[in-house]
C-alpha cells in the first residue's frame, strides 16, 4: 500500500477541521511549552550521563545476574568502557567530536538462552542510556516489506523520552544477525539480506537519520502541526556516530568454517580440540576471525564495522542450578513474589532447584528453559492455593516430578503440608548447628511430626521450637564427640518427647564406649 504524501495528509487534516470545526485538536501533537513564541529556538536538552565505571565494575555488576560467561563479560566491559569514556571526553571537550574515532561495535556469538540480550540490557540500565532491541529478520532492504533499520534509531529517541542528545549515546541491539548472512556460494543469493547489511553499515559508520520518516503517519501529522504553528518544518535529525551497535546470533554453522580453516593450517590443532571434547563448540568459536564471518556470508565492510568479537559458552545443568540459586535475577524470586501477593510463602528446596535445572537442561533452550519448567510445575499451584487457607508450602523435587499429585496431597492433608514445611525449615537449623559446633544433626520422621505439631499449637517457628528443646545439646553432643569421636546424630521423636533424659542416656553410653 502506498504511503500518503505530505500534501495529501495536510488536505485530509484541513477537511477534518472544516467538518468538526476549527477547535479540533489531535492528541498526538506535542504540546507547545508555555510562553514559547513561534519561531523561538528550542533549548537543547541536557543529558544525565556520568560514566565513571571501570571494566571490573561492569563485570562485577554482570556477575550478580549472569552465571558463567567470564570471558564474554570481560570483553564487553572493556568495549563499553572504551566507548563511553570517549563519549565523556567529547562532552567535556566538544572539539574531540570531529576527530577520527573507530567505534567498538560488538558481535556476540552464542546459543540461545545464555544471557546475550540480558547482559546488554543490564549494561544499558547500569550506565543509564536508552536501549533498543530487535530481531534482524524483521528488516528488509527497502523497509516496504519489513521494517526499516533507521526505525531503530528513531526508537532510541522514543526510549529517551524525546531527548535526542541522550538518544545519540544509546545502544542498539540486533539479535539473529546470522539470519541475514548471505553465503556467496549459494545459488540465488539473498539480495535482501545483503541490502540490510549495507543499510546497517551506514548507521554503524556515521549518518544522520531524519526523525520525520516519510512513511510514518505520526511523523507527517506532527510535521503538519509544526508547519501550522511556525510556518515551516524544522528538520529533526539524530547523528549515529556515537550510537553503539551490538549484534548477536547462534551462528550454528560457523564452527564448521573455523574447523576447516584450523585443519587446513594445522591438522594437529583441530584434532587436539576434538579429543578434548567432541561437543565443545566454544573452543572453536573463540578462535573466530573476520574472514570466517565473511565466509559465513557477511559483507567485508559490514563485519569490518564490528571489531569486537565476543563468544558465549553454552550452559550445562550445573550452570542452570547456579542461575536459580545465586543469580539476583533468579526466576525463583519472581515465583516467591507471585505467591506472596496472596499471602502465601513459597519455599523452594535445594533438591527441587536441582530437579528444575535438570528438566530445564533437557529443553535445550538455555536459561529460558527454567521459565518453561517453572511455569509447567507451578501453574496448578498458582491457580488453586490462593483460594485456600494454606499460608506456606514447599516446592520439593517430588513437586517438580509430579506437580498435580503433590498438590492433591497438600490440599487433602494439611498435616502432610505442614510436615513438609517443617522438614525443609529444619534444614536451616541443622546447617546453623553445624556452622556453630561442627556437629551434623538430622531429624527422623517421628521428630519432624512432633515438632510440626508443637509449632502449630504454639504458632511458633519450628527452628525456635528446636532451639528451646535442644538448648543443652550443644554441650552434651560435644562431650559425646570428645568421648567417642562421633560427629553425626539423629534427632528422634524420643529426643523431642524427653530431651534431657535422652541426652543423659547418650552421654552415659559414650562413657561406656570410652571405657571399652
Question: What's the helix and strand layout?
Answer:
Blueprint: H1 6-20, H2 55-63, H3 70-92, E1 106-109, H4 116-127, E2 131-135, H5 150-159, H6 164-167, E3 171-175, H7 191-205, E4 208-210, H8 217-230, E5 237-239, E6 244-249, H9 254-265, H10 267-276, H11 281-285, H12 290-296, H13 300-304, E7 308-311, H14 317-326, H15 331-340, E8 345-348, H16 350-363, H17 368-384, E9 392-395, H18 397-401, H19 403-412, H20 414-437, E10 440-443, H21 445-458, H22 462-469, H23 473-484, E11 488-491, H24 493-497, H25 499-515
Parallel strand pairs: 1-6, 1-7, 2-3, 3-6, 8-9, 10-11
Antiparallel strand pairs: 4-5
Helix pairs in contact: 1-8, 2-3, 9-10, 9-12, 14-16, 15-17, 16-17, 19-20, 20-21, 23-25
Comma- or semicolon-separated keywords:
alpha/beta; single chain; Helicase, Ruva Protein, domain 3; five-stranded parallel sheet; 25 helices; about 525 residues
Amino acid at each position: 500500500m502506498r504511503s500518503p504524501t505530505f500534501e495529501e495528509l495536510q488536505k485530509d487534516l484541513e477537511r477534518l477541521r472544516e467538518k468538526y470545526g476549527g477547535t479540533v485538536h489531535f492528541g498526538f501533537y506535542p504540546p507547545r511549552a508555555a510562553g514559547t513564541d513561534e519561531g523561538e529556538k528550542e533549548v537543547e536538552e541536557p543529558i544525565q550521563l556520568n560514566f565513571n565505571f571501570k571494566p571490573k565494575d561492569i563485570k562485577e555488576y554482570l556477575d550478580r545476574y549472569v552465571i558463567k560467561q567470564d570471558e564474554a563479560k570481560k570483553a564487553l566491559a572493556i568495549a563499553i568502557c572504551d566507548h563511553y569514556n570517549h563519549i565523556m571526553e567529547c562532552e567535556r571537550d566538544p572539539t574531540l567530536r570531529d576527530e577520527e574515532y573507530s567505534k567498538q561495535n560488538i558481535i556476540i556469538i552464542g546459543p540461545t538462552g545464555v544471557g546475550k540480550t540480558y547482559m546488554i540490557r543490564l549494561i544499558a540500565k547500569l550506565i543509564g542510556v536508552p536501549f533498543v532491541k530487535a530481531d534482524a529478520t524483521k528488516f528488509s532492504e527497502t523497509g516496504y516489506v519489513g521494517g526499516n533499520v533507521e526505525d531503530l534509531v528513531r526508537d532510541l529517541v522514543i526510549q529517551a523520552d524525546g531527548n535526542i542528545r541522550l538518544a545519540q549515546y544509546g545502544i542498539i541491539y540486533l539479535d539473529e544477525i546470522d539470519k541475514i548472512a548471505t553465503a556467496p556460494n549459494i545459488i540465488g543469493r539473498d539480495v535482501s539480506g545483503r541490502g540490510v547489511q549495507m543499510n546497517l553499515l551506514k548507521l554503524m559508520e556515521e549518518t544522520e537519520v531524519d526523525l520525520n520518516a516519510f512513511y510514518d503517519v505520526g511523523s507527517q501529522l506532527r510535521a503538519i502541526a509544526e508547519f501550522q504553528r511556525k510556518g515551516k518544518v524544522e528538520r529533526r535529525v539524530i547523528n549515529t556516530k556515537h550510537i553503539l551497535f551490538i549484534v548477536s546470533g547462534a551462528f550454528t554453522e560457523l564452527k564448521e568454517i573455523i574447523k576447516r580453516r584450523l585443519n587446513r593450517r594445522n591438522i594437529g590443532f583441530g584434532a587436539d580440540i576434538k579429543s578434548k571434547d567432541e561437543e565443545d563448540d566454544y573452543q572453536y568459536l573463540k578462535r573466530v576471525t573476520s574472514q570466517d564471518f565473511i565466509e559465513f556470508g557477511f559483507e567485508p565492510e559490514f563485519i569490518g564495522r564490528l571489531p569486537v568479537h565476543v563468544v558465549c559458552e553454552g550452559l550445562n545443568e550445573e550452570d542452570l542450578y547456579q542461575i536459580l540459586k545465586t543469580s539476583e535475577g533468579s526466576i525463583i524470586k519472581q515465583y516467591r513474589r507471585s505467591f506472596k501477593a496472596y499471602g502465601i510463602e513459597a519455599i523452594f528446596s535445594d533438591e527441587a532447584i536441582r530437579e528444575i535445572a535438570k528438566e530445564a537442561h533437557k529443553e535445550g533452550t538455555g536459561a529460558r528453559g527454567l521459565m518453561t519448567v517453572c511455569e509447567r510445575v507451578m501453574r496448578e499451584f498458582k491457580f488453586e492455593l490462593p483460594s485456600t487457607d494454606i499460608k506456606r508450602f514447599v516446592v520439593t523435587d517430588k513437586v517438580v516430578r509430579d506437580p498435580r499429585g503433590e498438590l492433591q496431597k497438600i490440599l487433602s492433608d494439611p498435616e502432610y503440608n505442614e510436615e513438609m514445611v517443617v522438614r525443609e525449615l529444619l534444614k536451616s537449623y541443622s546447617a546453623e548447628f553445624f556452622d556453630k559446633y561442627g556437629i551434623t544433626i538430622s531429624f527422623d520422621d517421628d521428630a519432624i511430626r512432633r515438632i510440626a505439631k508443637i509449632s502449630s499449637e504454639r504458632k511458633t517457628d519450628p527452628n525456635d521450637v528446636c532451639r528451646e528443646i535442644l538448648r543443652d545439646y550443644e554441650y552434651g553432643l560435644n562431650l559425646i564427640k570428645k568421648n567417642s569421636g562421633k560427629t553425626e546424630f539423629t534427632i528422634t521423636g524420643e529426643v523431642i518427647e524427653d530431651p534431657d533424659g535422652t541426652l543423659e542416656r547418650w552421654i552415659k553410653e559414650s562413657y561406656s564406649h570410652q571405657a571399652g
